[in-house]
Structures are given as C-alpha cells and as structure tokens.
Amino acid sequence: MFNGITAGNLQRKESKNIGSPDPPPYTPDRNLNVISSSNLSPKRRDSALSVDIYKNDEPANHTSSDDDLVTINVSGTEFVTTYSCLNRYPNTLLGSEEQRKPYFSAKLNAYYFNRHRPCFDSILHFYQTGKEAPPLNVDPDVYAKEKEFFGLKREREEKNKIITNEEELRGSCIKHTRMKIHQFLQDPRSSQPAAFWHGLDIFFICISICFLIIESEPDFTEQFTSNKAKYFYVLFSINCVIMGFFTFDFVIRLLTWPNPIDFWKNFFNVLDILSIMPFYVGLLANGVGSGGEDSGVSTQHYVVLRVCRIFRIVRIFKFVRHSRDLLIIMKAVSNAKRELVLLVLLLFIFVITFGSIMYYIESGSNNNFNSIMKSCWWVIVTITTVGYGDMYPESVGGKFFGAFVLTLGIVFLALPMTIIVSKFSFVYEREKM
C-alpha cells in the first residue's frame, strides 16, 4: 500500500503543488524555461519545463524496481502506476528510463509533463492493456500528436517491422482494413464519407420514427397494415430500404468489431438488434398469419405484431450514438448509479411505510384506499407533487397525515437529489475537458 493506493491500480488526484488552471495543449508555459539536454529531441525539448518544476538536484536513485509505484504528473493531475507497467514498452518515452529521466521533478517527486490531460488517460490505458481507447470529445489530431510525443507511434512501427512472411503481411492488411472500416462506422470525424454515412443513418432514423408515429393515427393505419390500401406498397418499400440500411450497418459493425464478444457487451449494438428484429419478426408473423385459418394462430399473430411494434420504439435511442453530449450524459449517469440506487431504495422505503399508514387511517371511511397498493400509488403521486386527484384522504386524520407526507416527501427527495446533481455535474465537466 502507498498512501491508500494499491500497486498496479491507476488512481488520479489533483496535485496540491500546481494550482494554476489547465494549460492549453502543446503550448509551453511562458513563465517556465526549456530544459537544455542533449538527450531530448527538439520536439521533446519544446515541451520539457524547468524552474520550480525541474531541478538539477534530482535524486540519483529516483528510478526503482519494477514493483515500485511511479507518479506521473500531467498538467497538475497525478497518475499512479508501476514501473513494470511502463517498462513493457521500452521503445516509448515512459518505457525508457533514459528518455523519461529529464522529466523527473524533485520538488513534485514525480515525472512532470505539460501535456493534454484527457489524452493521457488513453495513453496510460495503452501501457496497461496494450489496446488503444481514443478519448471522447478530443480532436483526433490532438490525440495523434500526444501519441507521437509519448512514442506510441514508434512502438507501433516497431511491432510492424516484426512482420516478415507473406501470410503475416496479408493478415496485417486484413486487420488494418477492418480497423479502417470500424473507424469509418464509429467516428464521423474520420473522413467526409464517414460523416455522410452517419448523416444518412440519422436521416433514416428520423424517417423510421415518423412512420412509427404516423402509423398510430387512425386515418393512416390502414395504409401501413393493409395490402389493399393505395399507398401500402410505397410505404412498405421505403420501410424495406430503411431496414436494409440498418441491417447492413449492423452486420458490417459486427464483422469489423475488434472483439466479437465485446460487441454484444456494447449497449448501442444491443439497441441496434432490438430495433431491427421487429421488422423481420413481423414479416415472418404476417406470413404465418396469412397462411393459416385457425383462430389460435391469428391470435398469436396479433400478439407478435403488437410486441414488435412496442420494440420499434427503441429506434429513437439510436440518436444517442450520434451525439457526444448525450454520450457524456449517459456516462455521467452511469458513474452516479450508486446514488441513484440509494434514491430508489429510500423512495421504496418511504412509499411502503407511509402507504401502509394511510391505508389503516382511511380504509374504514374511504373506499379509494381499499388496499395498500392503492395507498402506495397515492403516496408516489403526492410526494412527486403530481397530484392527479383520482384519490385523496377524506377524514381529518387522513388530511393531516397527507399534508405531513407531502411536506416530508419534498425534503426526502431533495436530500439525495443534491448529491446526484453534484456528482453528475462533476463527471459531466470532467468528460467535456
């Protein structure tokens, strides 16, 4: 253990020694001098800092064994890992003792880099896992420059030199092509065709949602469901084109995903299959329903179609994939899940407790409160200040208790909500950096 930090696990903490605001990426501080060292390339020399950060009186034994912890300070944020993690890639800046030595700060007792902090999360992730995870909301060119500075591009080039025979070269080309297609589908900023593809996806999502809404109108329902209607085949053909596009996009994503097992762990990929499946299940159900005369088959056919129409609602969530802000919001909500679970647990206890009390107060004189379940419904409607008015206490004791529940419920919900909002704001601002 080292100050509450377990070896091998990455933890971040704001440095107490550097209190200045985040510097812009790739711009050295004007108040700091550049190190003069023959070990540094001109590009590295521009980013190395001295004066109160780098000192010539650094300890001679600031490097340690592979199992020891090492602290890396990136523009005021400290990252803690082990030397063994860094030494796995000796051709990189952090993996080479000679290359990282000029960046050691005796005052901070850490290696200091005046670099882009959000990118360094992904840089250190590469050292830990050997896999690249580009940061969200960061320009690809910025991330590419950070990789070049820390030597990750050179590491990739060294690995590519190992490929010698024709079979390995062919496999490398296939893998490179897969990664290019994967990037094309995942990142609309990678190229203009990628931006056009994502724009086409958004357009088809909008058309699909419009069809879903219009189909529910009584005047247009027959046009979507009856093959005798005037515009049935036109609307059906448009729907086939849309679903064909969604299906093609899904299949290509599946074939080019780096790890097929991880593909099914991705939330948006599950949404894709749920949005596509109702169309094909509906076609199959229509075929079975039209071929049989048994009433049981017709009933099952009707139920299947109803279920498929419900699942089509998930298509609207495909918009989330194309919005960075929505992705950040989802990540912030995910990081606040412990507080959300606490809120639901407290709400459950509150509703059951006060719903039971209201039932015993009103059950003798008010037919609306004839079960604890209905009383719990009244408590939920009351503490959320909705107040449908479908049921309310009539006795004097019930009215006093109802006023108490309303007042206490507002305070009860406000307490955990402040924690959730604070946590959400912190995560949201951190991810937007």
Rg, Å, rounded = 30 Å
The counted number of beta strands is 5
Would you identify the regions where 5 or more consecutive residues have pLDDT less than 50?
1-63, 160-164, 288-298
Shape: flat
Summarize the main sheet. Answer: 5 strands, mixed
What's the overall average pLDDT, rounded? 75
User: Percent range for helical residues?
Assistant: 55-70%
- Briefly note the structural class of the backbone: mainly alpha
H/E series:
EHEEHHEEHHHHHHHHHHHHHH
Query: How much of the residues is beta strand, in percent?
Result: 5-15%
Keywords:
single chain, 17 helices, flat, 433 residues, mainly alpha
Write structural notes for this entry.
The protein is mainly α. It is built from 17 helices and five strands. It has a five-stranded mixed beta sheet. Helix 7 (166-186) packs across helix 10 and helix 14 (324-335) packs across helix 17 (396-432). It is flat, with a radius of gyration of 30 Å. Residues 1-63, 160-164 and 288-298 have low confidence and may be disordered.
Summed up:
With 433 residues, the chain is mainly alpha-helical. The protein is built from 17 helices and five strands.
Element layout with pairings:
Blueprint: E1 11-14, H1 42-47, E2 69-74, E3 77-82, H2 83-86, H3 97-100, E4 104-105, E5 110-113, H4 117-129, H5 140-149, H6 152-161, H7 166-186, H8 192-215, H9 221-225, H10 232-256, H11 260-263, H12 267-291, H13 295-311, H14 324-335, H15 337-362, H16 372-383, H17 396-432
Parallel strand pairs: 2-5
Antiparallel strand pairs: 1-3, 2-3, 4-5
